[in-house]
Amino acid sequence: MEVVDDFLDTDDFTHLKNTMEGLYFPWFWNPRTTAYDNTPQLIHNFIFKGKVNSPHLNLLEESKLFEKLGSTYIARCKANLNYKTIENDVGSFHTDFFYDSGDSMNGITTSILYINTNNGGTQFSDGTRVKSVANRLVKFDCSQEHASVSCTDEDRRVLININYF
After folding, report:
1. 99-118 pLDDT tens trace
2. Global pTM value
3. Residues 6 or more apart from 108 whose CB is under 8 A from it?
4. Which of 2, 69, 146, 149 is the most buried (most CB within 10 A)?
5. Rounded CA gap, 163 and 140, in Å?
């Protein structure tokens, strides 16, 4: 696992953050955060199963996100928006790819770019917790189980999750 603060250039990140947190960025209802729970969230699928799924992909390309990751192929890239909760709830541990879908996890890297700072984060099955800090990136092998940790101090927790080679 690798944690990198100030991952994107300040101007690039500020534009990305302002757009995603703005009034006109489209978010879509998802009835569950993972296949194992019933906690709803809002999502925006930029890329799904290797195919562009959003007219807003240029926002990520302009920020040089994929270039800085050194990715050669993006299998999935989606933004998550989770509302604040009364307590810091740890979600269900999961991996982002499932063997029954025909996807192989071999060689896939997961990176999470936090869009806003809050007291939530990402919990890993080994007990490690990475806090949500704006422009922080956590990078790990896709087979590593992780879970979202909700926030209590901000209205929402926003991040981008990328699965790539």
Report:
1. 445 555 678 999 999 999 99
2. 0.94
3. 75, 96, 97, 141, 142, 163, 164, 165
4. 146
5. 10
Alpha helices by DSSP H, listed for 21-91, are 57-62, 65-69
| Per-residue b or e along 80-94, where b marks 16 or more CB atoms closer than 10 Å to that residue's CB | bbbebeeebbebeeb
User: Cβ atoms within 10 A of the Cβ of 2, count?
Assistant: 9
User: Residue 41 is which amino acid?
Assistant: Q
From 157, 153, 121, 120, select the one nearest 138 (Cα to Cα): 121
pLDDT at 38: 77
Query: Could you say which DSSP state residue 63 is in?
Result: T
Q: Quick check: 165 and 71 in contact, CB under 8 A?
A: yes
Q: Which residues contact 12 (CB under 8 A, 6 or more apart)?
A: 62, 63, 64
Which of helix, strand or coil describes residue 16?
helix
What are the tokens at 127?
């007990």
> Which token pair is 150?
């909700």
